[in-house]
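Re: [help] complex structure
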Amino acid sequence: MQNMDMVSKDFQDKVLNDQGLTFSEKILSLKRSDEPNKIALSNEIIVAKVDLAMAHDGTAPLAIKVLEELGIKKIWDSSKVILHIDHTYPASSEQIANFHSIMRKFAITQGCHIQEGNICHQYMLENFVVPGMLIIGADSHTTTQGSLGAFATGVGSTEIATIWASGKIWLKVPESIKIIFNGNLPKGVYAKDLILYTTGKISCEGANYKTIEFTGNVVKGFSIDSRATLCNMSIEAGAKAGIVEMDYITKEYLISLGREPMLEVHSGKEAIYDKILEEDVDGMEPYVALPHSVDNVKAVREVEGIPIDQAFLGSCTNARLEDLMIAAKILKGKKVKEGVRLIVTPASKSVYKNILKSEIADILLEAGASITSPTCGACVGTHCGVLGANEVCISSSNRNFIGRMGSRGSKVYLASPATVVASAIKGAIIDPRDYLR
Amino acid sequence: MIFLRGRAWKFSDNIDTDVIIPYKYKARSIDPKDLAEHCMEGIDPEFSKKVKKGDFIVAGRNFGCGSSREQAPVAIKACGISAVIAESFARIFYRNAINIGLPAIVCKNISKEVNEGDLIELNLGEGVVKNLSTGKVMKAERQPKFLERMLEVGGLIEYYKKFGKFSWE
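Output below.
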């Protein structure tokens, strides 16, 4: 394990073994630079050293402008700054192409990493994130990266520019909420259903400013793909971070990609939580968030029959290999209903390559899906699946706000990949378990 | 002591950044003037035309939830709003607003104490909100000193230009 320059080995061991501290308190105690070697407790404001600082084409152009206005010529550490061109990739207009050019030029000048054509959070998981990191991203769904046992949170453009300049950020150490999923997950129910259910239960501000720790035997059995879905949507309840602690599944994932943890951090057994929610998943079913709020959640069977124009399987929430495998299982030998479009946007080039190598891409195409290159596109209503007036979409993405995917008059229903593709076959919202028998 | 005075535009709980400024506009331009034209378009497409310089947004809980787009507070500021006073804010919006020099003021029960069109006075240094139309005086939550210092000079960029460091350094 890597040690950090300013923290003494004794202090690190003391913090990691402290049974009274939460994951967030431990990791931020070890990252703080204002008073190194001093424990950071919940609600304390600290200054912390950042391990990775990323931005994308929706936030980086403004951050680059801010850096210029500040008169800062050189970023603090080019190996820790990552740029992603993903939100509107490939460019859909001249103005957007110009923003992409600004980012490429900046990356060359600064010598930092830039990638194009992979959704940022998926690319970060595949290439950079390791347990114990403090990651700041100019994107609200940066919480996704907590699925590998890191503390990852979102900020805006000016703030990411200040990190690029200084390597540091001020943070209020968050209180924590523990959500425990125990039991046997019924067939047709997935991580997406659990997080939709939770958001419905605690509301879209139920975790404001707090860390959500996901645990329980169900989460411990989840793949990194499923854990990423949970952490991704913790921001929809307002969370600062969503985390799943490192375990053997995390280790296997890292080994498969040739990376090692920085720090293995676990909440202490006597740590104090703002709230502990224990959910028995045995009675859970597929859920859907109705327009226009992510916490407007009902069981899919309660809203079955709502006709759809578009089914979207994509975004940083649910477009990983596991999601597309589930989709293919349901779509095999079936056809998308005439008049309905199914748009599939893999989360990364690696996911895309894998569906091409397996039979997944064939199954999706045979069923009538359109597969786009990886982008945030439809989820943010910029391209590759924008909704027209009064159109209805069932989507595996994360937000159903007014106008999110296009017209102010369109409606977005959020659900799992299984519910999305089952609904595409039916032409209306339907419980996917009807197709899993 | 900074006094701000203007009329209140009222909004409900959970105003998200997609209704404040849809992605399609912010993808095309980072010019505050372009963004201002579409401010609050998801709720009221005419909003930017109706706002007068110095007006306030008064809102319920969790204002600015959703995306990290800084263009949301930028659009609000550029259409002339002098401060957002809400019962609570989503965390990224709150940071963004202060960084760009738009006061984001937490004031409990503000929704109940203010009607649309009421004349409001905000004493930024003291954290006091007065509804001049009803005479009601309310205490806002104080912000950490380093954020107040940043707001006083107009935001993070201005602070850095003036002092050659960030306010938390």
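Chain B has one domain: 3-141.
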